[in-house]
Amino acid sequence: MTTPTPDVLSEAEQGRCQEFFPTTANSIQNNIIHHLMSFQGRDPERSGASDIYKALAFTMRDIMVEKWIKTQKTYYAKEKKRVYYLSLEFLIGRSLSNAIINLGLWDEVKQAVEGLGYSLGEISEQEEDAALGNGGLGRLAACFMDSIATLKIPAYGYGIRYEYGLFNQQLINGYQVESPDNWLRYGTPWEFERRVPVFCVQFYGKVTTYQDEKGCFRTKWIDTEDVMAMPCDMLVPGYKNDHVINMRFWAARASRELDLTHFGEGDYIGAVQHKVSSETISKVLYPPDHNYAGQELRLKQQYFFVCATFQDIMRRYKKKNAMFDDFNDQVAVQLNDTHPAIAIPELMRLLLDVEGLNWEKAWDVCTKTFAYTNHTLMPEALERWSVDLMGKVLPRHLQIIYEINQRFLDQVAQQYPGDIDKLRRMSIIEEGYPKMVRMAHLAVIGSHSVNGVAALHTQLLKERTFKDFHALYPDRFNSKTNGITPRRWLLTANPELAGLINSRIGTGWEVDLEELRTLEPLADDPEFREAFWQVKLNNKKRLTDYIQLTTGVEVIPETMFDVQVKRIHEYKRQLLNALHVIYLYQKFVSEPDLELPPRTVIFAGKAAPSYWRAKLIIKLINAIAEVVNHDPRIGDRLRVVFLPNYNVSQAELIIPAADLSEQISTAGTEASGTGNMKFALNGALTIGTLDGANIEIREEVGEENIFIFGLNAEEAAFERIRNSRTPEQICRDNPEVAEVMEALADGSFAQGDRNLFKPLVDSLMSPHDQYLLIRDFESYLACQQRVNEAFLDQQCWLRMAVLNVARMGKFSTDRTIRQYANEIWGIPV
Ligand code: IMP
């Protein structure tokens, strides 16, 4: 045990901190200059925006670190139960503006920076996004951190410090081309690279048994290849509450011993190669891919961060505790999807092999510690590892998984005697060639809580994905509808709207989003609507400039900004949106006098590099844009834009400028979605299916303030089997649909090439299209017509938009995190 440090800062220390850390415009400016000179060696008079950005970031970090130390000491002083949020992804984006806002220093920093001859906007633009995540799951983790800090929950985020984040996307000739995201090229001012604690992580090797001093048989994992895990901390400030937590990201480093072995043998190159190969573990974030099977490096990443995290958890736990009986009174671990589920056998290994607990006790501690969040309904996205690979990389863990499985199946067999098929379905091991370890089953069996991320998602988990498990453990399943942090997604991203809201109802909503409800009467106030419209228009003008700059396409801010930004995937149905664009195009050409509101249809999103069909959808959208944007018959009535390289900071620009939010996934496929919440909070109206959290958004805003179309989840599931109307029949019945499909098939968007988009045509026309695009197309068209009519009545549209903002209270991550804390983690908030 290490000697504990005092639990609170002494008065003298507090005094020193107060003097040292700047909180006035003047002292902030001095601190920036100090950082410029002392740490960057720059002459303040000759520094550029990027130097100022770095110096300002260090200044903010200084302020945060003091608060962080105080926060941590309080945890020790009050012996708080701690929560560990394990996630392979944290999609952070930029940190500067968010930190300044959360520290409550916006005006002071603005003044300080302007005094140096810069605007704060210009300085913020210097920051590279930290894209340590692929999409929804990673961004959710980042929003959670903000709420956890704001609610003063003793928690830590744990993940990997990827040297390369999510790839950059360029569009070349309309095709997605990937390039590496070298975000640490110039370092990041936000992290603390720490030399302690550094932990050793084992891989490969073999398992042996021995008799300990008491004569008990114990297991040991030996002859392993070892890699060191070095912590890099990033601080997360709560909103104006002096509470600062940290995310700890592990970086892989070569182990010194092995280096020395190579050197000792005179093998200099070998030593260097060993170093390089060890460090590849944290080199790169795996891009979105629904099938990681067989990728050894990904399994190693998962174990690497889990193993280091648990050594850190144990280190902290052991400072104040000697026994493990109360472990789960002190520690809660939330698994963000199955990516960290190897933590279950890892904790068992630590308790059995290192701490010497018996199986029953260890298992009891383990299941009371873990909680698992599921994020997907797509069966192909459920993680599975081949038994052979697991046995090679983590032989002891495979043994433990087999033991967990055996004991679990004995219990199932007892409960359902003779039901062999149930045993087969529920087993952690999937029998087949090759045999696979089902990580989702391991996570359900090893946790006391399994949650879905929206009401429909949880219902479908219980009825479909985990039906057998739900029958066995009905109390284990619960729902936690996702949310978004209002600090980033309204206060930071849309300062004008935040300012307008503040001027009418005050600032309480910033920490209690339900307070937005008091805006409701203002939906009928013409003056407020006018101001609201002006804010939206200003945001649209900002986006218009950005579109012009990045794509060269001129768009008109007064047109309807119809936006779909998210990962490109068949189930999210960007293709359905593209078909509507073709339909509109044909309408504008064939009926030039038709009264339809002009639209700017905006897409953005990345496709998995290996997902060729999604990449072809990107090409199609760009091909449609090419034709539509250059057709003089269309005039200014329709524009199509695909913005390259979608990321968090681009989202912050796009979302406040949207009029219409496209949330059109096939019902029963999207777990929750959080983009849908961000748009509605920023005053866009949703066109969507009854999927994920759209259902709850409809409940909140009222069905008259949202545009819903298409099959529901039950109908969609039924339709896949029954196939009552095939795409071919629909085309026969509806000439408008047929005409759209004809244009897609005849090469109208491919310079006459009928083959380019044939794979998309074939899947759309297939009677087995599992995403049911054509089946929902007519309903989508009718719904888009309702959107057109509503948009033409500007006052009616504005009323609906204001009501959407006013009714978004439920979707704050503050609410989500309160539920996790109270109902899963055993930490009353
Ligand atoms: P950790 O919890 O050991 O990771 O340490 C995080 C921070 O908490 C340290 O930098 C200290 O400021 C504080 N801290 C660590 N151990 C103790 C303790 O035993 N008592 C009070 N504060 C501590």
Automatic annotation (TrEMBL):
Keywords (alphabetical) are: Carbohydrate metabolism, Glycosyltransferase, Pyridoxal phosphate, Transferase
Per its UniProt record, the required cofactor names are: pyridoxal 5'-phosphate
Q: Which domain of life is it from?
A: Bacteria
Q: Name one Pfam family in it.
A: Phosphorylase
Keyword Acyltransferase among UniProt keywords: no
**Reactions that this protein is recorded to catalyse:** [(1->4)-alpha-D-glucosyl](n) + phosphate = [(1->4)-alpha-D-glucosyl](n-1) + alpha-D-glucose 1-phosphate
> Could you tell me the EC number(s) of this protein?
2.4.1.1
Q: What class of enzyme is it?
A: transferase
Query: What is this protein's function per UniProt?
Result: Allosteric enzyme that catalyzes the rate-limiting step in glycogen catabolism, the phosphorolytic cleavage of glycogen to produce glucose-1-phosphate, and plays a central role in maintaining cellular and organismal glucose homeostasis. Phosphorylase is an important allosteric enzyme in carbohydrate metabolism. Enzymes from different sources differ in their regulatory mechanisms and in their natural substrates. However, all known phosphorylases share catalytic and structural properties.
The family classification in the record reads: Belongs to the glycogen phosphorylase family.
Q: Which PANTHER family match?
A: GLYCOGEN PHOSPHORYLASE (PTHR11468), GLYCOGEN PHOSPHORYLASE, LIVER FORM (PTHR11468:SF3)
What is the protein name given in its UniProt record? Alpha-1,4 glucan phosphorylase
Give the source species: Desulfofustis limnaeus
